[in-house]
Design brief:
Blueprint lengths: L2 E3 L1 H6 L1 H9 L4 E3 L9 E3 L2 H8 L5 E6 L5 E6 L3 E5 L2 H21 L13 H8 L4 H9 L5
Parallel strand pairs: 1-2
Antiparallel strand pairs: 2-3, 4-5, 5-6
Helix pairs in contact: 4-5, 4-6
InterPro entries: Antitoxin_RelB
Pfam family, one: PHD_like
Protein name: HicB family protein
């Protein structure tokens, strides 16, 4: 079982809760009201490791006109570019916009057609830069 705190205790002892997180001890914070759900706080590295199994499959193709397009699975979205490098950058931007939609429209975390994509959105949101997103999508060092 997770280490458990009542909301008011977590607020009053936030340093202790945060110290636990730093020591890789995730904590459960009990909801304040019956209409709320409990929350979990854990370290960024633990979340990243937990989400590591959710990988992206990118299919990049060269079109007859010399441009490139990329299909981003499981996001079911695409990006295009005049060069392969531009296409990869555009795919990273598309993925970033997809993940930001989750933050700007919280219903996406709950909607049946997008709920299963939550781990992928979180993986993208853990990236600090667009280059990090490109690295996440394509698994190679970005120049």
């Amino acid at each position: 079982m997770l280490k458990e705190y009542r909301f008011s205790a977590a607020r009053q002892n936030f340093t202790t809760v945060f110290d636990d997180v730093q020591n890789f001890i995730p904590s459960l914070i009990k909801a304040r009201k019956q209409t709320e759900t409990d929350g979990v706080i854990l370290s960024r590295s633990m979340l990243a490791e937990t989400l590591g199994q959710y990988t992206f499959d990118i299919d990049i193709r060269l079109e007859n006109d010399g441009t490139y397009w990329a299909w981003i699975m499981p996001l079911n979205d695409y990006a295009m570019g005049d060069t392969e490098e531009e296409c990869k950058r555009a795919a990273a931007e598309t993925a970033r916009e997809f993940a930001e939609d989750f933050m700007n429209e919280p219903y996406m975390f709950q909607a049946k057609n997008t709920r299963t994509l939550t781990p992928y959105a979180l993986r993208i949101l853990l990236c600090d830069t667009k280059e990090d997103i490109e690295q996440l999508l394509f698994g190679e060092e970005v120049a």
